[in-house]
Amino acid sequence: MALPARDALAILDEVSARLCEPALPGLPLRAGPGEMPSLPVLGEIMTRLRAAIFPGFFGKNRPDSASLRYHLAANLDTIHRLLAGQIVAGLCFACQASPEPCAGCDQQGREAALAFMAALPEIRRKLTLDAEAAYEGDPAAFSPGETIFCYPSLTAMFHHRISHELFRLKIPIVPRIIAEMAHSTTGIDIHPGARIGESFFIDHGTGVVIGETAIIGAGCRLYQGVTLGALSFPKDLDGSLTRGIARHPILEDDVTVYANATILGRITIGKGSVIGGNTWVTRDVPPNSKITLGKDW
After folding, report:
1. By the 8 A CB rule, do 117 and 76 touch?
2. Which of 138, 144, 197, 292 has CB atoms 3.0–4.6 Å from 276's, for a disulfide?
3. What is the pLDDT of residues 9-18, one digit of tens each?
């Protein structure tokens, strides 16, 4: 039964008043004084970065060698401008938790964006090694280029190498958004804080979880469903979770972890070790070990 118009307006006015109240103590009604980071703009930045790092594989234009530098320079200029704006938005988002007004975010954002741009050649070098590792580790791949264009591992690592650099520069929220873009597309969940060495490959990939403080050496390989997680979550005296402590595994160089294995806590998997599928590991593993299902570990 329809309500009279006057009653409907009264109800809507009451709902409006209640929604103007904070949903939780300390949670503001809006993120901060500036604009929020933009998913569409960050998506454009990632698309442009993909075309800049792997020209010819991605992007609308396929410039020839004579005009490549011109097109790259124009693209990089746009990336820098857009990224600086998104970094400023992320900094303003973080400022909302501070009692002090937002100050210096514009300058900090421009400097951080430029520092990120300077890191792009090194990011490309690592991604190229990831592509080679995918090709060498998968007999179904016909070339490293195929892995760049098609493989979820390379998509996830493209996002991670970029988000990790922004995380290293202490940019709030933007790295996490970029990481979640890849997570939603590939099913591979890598926290931007995870430190991952060269020549890394995730075969198949769906369901892989790599926590914030995980450290992975060079030449490591994971299969689908692997978790590098925390064994427990210590709490402060007030009962809130203790943040920023090392709580995820360390994989030394050339470690292979097969499907659905779970490795928890700040433990070390020694160099050259193989962790079998469906295993559960919560203590250190010596170098060159083989851990299989049913073995006490």
Report:
1. yes
2. 292
3. 899 999 999 8
pTM attached to this predicted model: 0.88
Q: List, in sequence order, every residue forming a beta bridge with 275; answer none if it has no partner.
A: 257, 291
Beta bridge partners of 227: 209, 262
Residue with tokens 């410039």: 63
Residue 265, C-beta contacts closer than 8 angstroms, at least 6 positions apart: 230, 231, 232, 247, 248, 249, 282, 283
Task: Render pLDDT for 168-196 as a digit per residue (tens, 0 to 9).
Answer: 999 999 999 999 999 999 999 999 999 99
List Cβ neighbours of 45 (8 Å cut-off, separation of 6 or more). 79, 82, 83, 86
Maximum Cα interatomic distance, the chain, rounded to a whole number of Å: 77
Torsion of CA 100, 102, 107, 108, to 10 degrees: 70
- Residue with structure tokens 């650099």? 165
